[in-house]
Write a structure and sequence with these properties.
This protein is about 55% helix and about 15% strand. The strands form two sheets. It has a four-stranded antiparallel sheet with strand order 4-3-6-5, sandwiched between helices. It has a three-stranded antiparallel sheet with strand order 2-1-7.
Length: about 300
């Protein structure tokens, strides 16, 4: 009896979609279909297309996370594990014992936490312009939900800035040179606000001429805060670097502000920021999917 060729006996896994420089296989789609019951009134073909579209969006998102260079540190994972243990009122050592008794791997838990933190860090990086939290929002939150902290007086600084991001199209040296030119034009009499609107990569503040409003200590990055602190009112700083890129800033004023203690405000800021992130995650995912190169290779006859 003649034996079948190897490829006939073992069908090659079909590619059903190309996403940027990666692919989605028929086996992946089949697994996803098994885990996604078909809704009433939806044909088998429509259901398959819907599930594939979700796989494409997830693949595009995963590839964007990798390309972004966002990382998760062991310290972040340790902190998250400690929080899980504390919420269950046990030690980390006992948490490991519980997992072992249940036949679960502690390393797998850390990997799962790492993946969640990686996505959180990516979302925060990509949505940084959309998740800025103002002092007035914190004041409203504390007024609504209350604060356990005592009031204190802090020095707030009102400033404008121009941000230039660096990367493949702009080096650190080029960003510094551009900002020096902007600074010279501003000192010569041009409007800081007009230049910010035209050139700043911080699109959220650029619409308002780079205006950041009144900032309390600890809101800005340490690098940005340090430059604000040492810049006189109405003066324009030299170019400086932060994790977001290169900046120049102009201090518009300083004032004393009475508010809740720092810890209460920090907790409120974190909750408001997380809410804003969650509200914009779907928008971010759609934007990444639209920007990805996608080729669907499903057989129309299937």
């Amino acid at each position: 009896m003649m034996s079948l060729p190897l490829q006939a006996a073992r069908p090659i896994d079909q590619i059903v979609a190309v996403v940027d420089d990666d692919v989605i296989l028929r086996s992946e789609l089949n697994r996803a279909l098994r885990g996604s019951p078909r809704p009433a009134g939806v044909s088998k073909k429509q259901h398959e297309e819907q599930v594939l579209e979700k796989l494409i969006s997830n693949k595009a998102l995963q590839l964007s996370v990798v390309k972004s260079g966002v990382k998760v540190t062991e310290a972040e994972i340790d902190e998250a594990v400690a929080l899980i243990a504390a919420q269950n009122k046990i030690t980390v050592a006992f948490l490991k014992e519980v997992l072992q008794r249940q036949g679960q791997d502690y390393g797998a838990l850390r990997k799962s936490i790492s993946e969640q933190l990686l996505m959180r860090n990516f979302q925060r990086k990509m949505l940084s312009n959309l998740v800025q939290v103002t002092d007035s929002e914190i004041d409203d939150y504390l007024a609504l939900y209350g604060s356990a902290g005592k009031s204190s007086t802090v020095t707030q600084i009102h400033s404008r800035h121009i941000l230039l991001r660096t990367g493949e199209t702009r080096s650190n040296k080029a960003a510094q040179k551009e900002l020096q030119e902007f600074r010279s034009r501003i000192i010569a009499g041009e409007s800081f606000a007009d230049i910010a609107r035209a050139f700043s990569d911080d699109t959220a503040s650029a619409l308002n001429g780079g205006d950041l409003g009144w900032l309390s200590p600890g809101v800005a990055t340490p690098q940005f805060q340090a430059v604000m602190d040492r810049t006189a009112v109405n003066a324009v700083s030299q170019p400086f670097q932060s994790p977001f890129g290169w900046h120049i800033l102009k201090v518009l004023g300083r004032r004393n502000h009475q508010g809740a203690d720092t810890s209460a405000r920090d907790a409120a800021r974190e909750k408001i920021q997380q809410r804003k992130i969650e509200e914009n995650v779907a928008l971010l995912t759609r934007r990444i999917r639209q920007q990805a190169y996608v080729e669907i290779l499903l057989d129309p006859a299937e």
